[in-house]
Design goal:
binds adenosine-3',5'-cyclic-monophosphate; globular; 4-stranded antiparallel β-sheet
Length: 148
Amino acid sequence: MERTLILIKPDGVKRRLSGEIISRFERKGLKIVALKMLILSKERAEKHYDVHKGKPFFKDLVSYITSGPIVAAVLEGPGAISITRLMSGTTDGSKAQPGTIRGDYSTGIEKNIIHASDSAESFQHEFPIFFQDGEINQYQCGDESNLY
Ligand code: CMP
């Protein structure tokens, strides 16, 4: 089954939106298989965002994502990667569609509430920065036959 990584960024946590965001994904039918709160070190943040190294916003991005606690989760379900990206909305909150997480809660591009892996390759890169394989919980939900 497909898995993806989401991060609720410091703005989302400090605005008390963690439960609301996780709830949206649960209600959609995705399954939480790993979940934790942490403060990222500069080194791990730079690794997570290494595709953006050299871009003008890289330093500020690392400084921001390490500025407070984040919530990291692995979500599982068919199409989990594209579903979480669609539900998150376009990167810039000022342009994101209402009804998406960024469209409903963000007006900016840096403080944009959530990160979600954009491909299976990104998930493979990002997952070990936040979790070990043994932290994935495999279990069945009673409604799976009605979902997929
Ligand atoms: P995220 O989905 O976490 O992936 C990379 C992040 O870089 C993105 O969300 C934005 O928060 C940030 N980002 C992307 N483009 C810009 C930009 N032009 N200026 C500032 N931050 C940006």
